[in-house]
Structure formats: C-alpha cells, structure tokens
Amino acid sequence: MTLREINFDGIIGPSHNYAGLSQGNLASARNARLVSQPRAAALQGVEKMRHNLRLGLAQGAFMPLPRPNRGWLAALGTDVENAPDSIRPAAFSASAMWAANAATVSPAPDTADGRCHLTVANLRTMPHRSHEWPDTLAQLRLAFADESAFAVHAPVPGTFGDEGAANHMRLCASHGAPGVEVFVYGERGGAFPARQHVEASRAIARLHGLDADRTLFAAQSEEAIAAGAFHNDVVAVANENVLFAHELAFADKGALYADLRRLMPEVEIVEVPASAVSLADAVASYLFNAQLVSLPEGGMALILPEEARETPAVWSWLQDMVAGNGPIRQLLIVDVRQSMSNGGGPACLRLRVVADPSSVDQRFMMDEAKLDRVAGVIASHWPEQIAPEDLRDPALWRQMEQAREALFRELRLNELL
C-alpha cells in the first residue's frame, strides 16, 4: 500500500450565496447580502484543483449537498415555500464547499487498528452548517467504503461542538510515517463563539485509537478568535515536519512548541511575528489558510489566495521568508475570490486524507479529463448570480436541484441523489 496525501476539495454548489450566516467570520459578515456568482465560484474551485494536479499532487473532490435542504425544513415543521426568514437562508447554505470542516482524519500509521479513521464533524455551533453532517456522512461512507482501509464514524454527540479538520493538525517525518496529532480547541473568543470544544477533540482521539503519548490538545488564543480566527486554520497550518503559525495563534505556544520538539525533534516551526503581520492582516489575507504542501520534486510550497499577494505586510514577509533557507520554498497563487468573499480560503476548500488513492472510490478521484467534465456541467447548469431576494424564487430552487443532479449523473453518483 502506497500512502499519499490526497486533497479532497468541495465542489462549490449552485446555491452559493452571501447570507452572512457565520458569526465570527469577518468576510462572511462584511459581504452579507451582496450578489454572489455561483458559476464563477465553482469554476474557480475547479481551476484550483487543476492547478494542484499539475503540481503532481493527488486530487479528489466532494460533491455539493442537496440545497435547498427540504428534509431539514420538514423536520422544523415547514417547507421551502413557507420557511420564515429566520431559517430560510440556512436551508440554502453552500458552506459544505469548505471540506476542511467535513471531518477529522487520522491516517493509518497513527491508529491502533492500522486503518485511516474519519469522524464527520457535527458543526453544531452554526445553524446553517448543523444540518450538513447526514449527507456528508453518506458521501464519506461511499468514498471510503473499503473497510480494510478506512473507518468512517458518525459525529460525536452534539453536546460538544466539532468543526472538523480545520482545528486539527498532524506533524510527521513523511505522510506515510507515524505522526503527532494536534487538536486545537477554543475556550473564549470575546464577542465571537469558540467553535471547537475540547471534549469533542478528546472523543475523536479515542474513537480513532490514537496513541495518547503522541496526541496533543492546544487551546486557541482568545485574541485570535476575537480577531476573526474562527478556526485554527485561519492562524496556523502544518505539513509533514513543518508548523507554520502566527505568533498569537495559541493560548500557550510555549508549551505546545516544547511538546512538539520533545515528540518530534525534527519539527521546524515557522512563526510569523505579530510585529510583522498583524492578526487583522493575517485574517483578511488568509495567509495561514493556505495549502502547505510537499512537492513531488522535493521542498514545500504555500498555495495562497490572491488576497495574500495584495496585502503588503503579508506579501513582504512571505518574500523575505522564501529568500531565506527555511523549509517553505515556493509561493503559488490561486484565485478563489468567490470563496474568500464568503469566508473560506484555499485550505478551507479541502480535506486532507492520507491513504492509498487506489483504495478510494474512483468516482471521487479527479484527473484533468474528469475536471473538464465537471467544469462543463457547471458552465451549463450553475446559476450565474444569486441576489438575496432570489432565494424566494421557485425557478431558482429547481435550477439548483437540477444542476446538482446533472453533476451527480455525470460522475455516476446516482445513489447519492
């Protein structure tokens, strides 16, 4: 079995709109009620996947969830025609595009039974995301159906909020080697909610059969959450032996860094000082919501949004970093502006799974030809734009549902319809 890191990107759904539903997500709030461009958004996502394929990385995709979510509305005693304004926008949310929140993943080298474990996130903190998990679970159980290689768990009980891999980091000598798993949780966030509960993280570590001596739990700093770092991946990202983090990411960085160096002497910590890049600039640019990847030819690259290049303090610091002798050698830019405007950067759009690609249901694995087919469906079926008042239009509801059905039929995923 050849283990590789596979990035599964969420295909941006045809209901992509700016409803400003995510408290604590500054971009979501700032762009609330603007006109969105679902077709452009989804095509930007496809181009990001194509960009990564051309780097030689393994690439998969997850499908949009059913929107409007008629089943969820029915459970609330209403329907899409009569839903009150207090819940209607949540039924249309396309936030499942941010696949980093789909699940927490522990690769086979870290688990007691030698399988890759995935626990679907309950996302209970935000109403518009709390109804994602049943459809996400069905999709993951199909994509990772090989029970000799994978164990897919239902969410931890909604008693404790879990936001998935956006609050989880793994450090290792190489993707296929045993790692140190770091679960980051929130305690306080000023005016904003702390979304990841430590008890959810501890439960997932137990469910995955992780070695307690190689599992760490670290609190996010209250300052970071209050600045808009609603998930850890807005202020820190890890890849193999490198941790790339803002100086103010963690409540007790000294203890975390010491534990990492004790457990993994080869760890390299690349810290961005607050004096060079403020939390405000880090959050606005999504500097840390980049994909930090290992390139097939060696070395690491940061796959960054355009906004990072357009933020002077961020780009200046990055230029100085790659001019030095550190582990991150390349800066690669992708255009994900539609996702960024709703509060998610390149890293939000993907779930990292270390596995043998041949063990995955191949309908979820992407290549250039398959991406061409996906782009063709998007260009033909996705709405060009959605204004807030359009969510009341039955013709748009039908277009959204027919667009999703066309994509699933193109990829022969009919059992998920």
Total number of helices = 15
Strand content: 15-25%
- The total tally of domains equals 1
Mean pLDDT: 95
Assembly category: single chain
Any guess at the CATH architecture? 5-stranded Propeller
Fraction of residues in H or I helices: 25-40%
Identify the overall geometry: globular
> How far apart are the first and last residues' alpha carbons, in Å?
32 Å
CATH topology: L-arginine/glycine Amidinotransferase, Chain A
User: What profile does the largest beta sheet have?
Assistant: 3 strands, mixed
Strand segment count: 15
Question: Are there runs of 5+ residues with pLDDT below 50, and where?
Answer: none
Secondary-structure topology with pairs:
Blueprint: E1 4-10, H1 26-30, H2 38-54, E2 58-62, H3 70-75, H4 88-91, E3 103-106, E4 116-120, H5 127-130, H6 133-143, E5 150-153, E6 168-172, E7 179-185, H7 198-207, E8 215-219, H8 222-226, E9 236-239, E10 242-246, H9 253-263, E11 268-272, H10 279-285, E12 291-294, E13 300-305, H11 306-309, H12 312-323, E14 328-334, H13 337-341, E15 350-355, H14 368-381, H15 394-410
Helix pairs in contact: 2-14, 14-15
What report would you give on this structure?
- The protein is an alpha/beta fold.
- It has a single domain (4-265, 350-416), classed as L-arginine/glycine Amidinotransferase, Chain A, CATH 3.75.10.20.
- Helices cover 32% and strands 19% of the residues.
- The chain contains 15 helices and 15 strands.
- It has helices at 26-30, 38-54, 70-75, 88-91, 127-130, 133-143, 198-207, 222-226, 253-263, 279-285, 306-309, 312-323, 337-341, 368-381, 394-410, and strands spanning 4-10, 58-62, 103-106, 116-120, 150-153, 168-172, 179-185, 215-219, 236-239, 242-246, 268-272, 291-294, 300-305, 328-334, 350-355.
- It has a three-stranded mixed beta sheet with strand order 2-1-15, with helices on one face. The protein has a three-stranded mixed beta sheet with strand order 3-4-5, covered by helices on one side. Strands 6-7-8 form a three-stranded mixed beta sheet, sandwiched between helices.
- Strand 9 (236-239) and strand 10 form a beta hairpin.
- Helix 2 (38-54) runs antiparallel to helix 14 (368-381) and helix 14 (368-381) runs antiparallel to helix 15.
- The radius of gyration is 20 Å and the shape is globular.
- The relative contact order is 0.18.
- The model has no long low-confidence stretch (mean pLDDT 95).
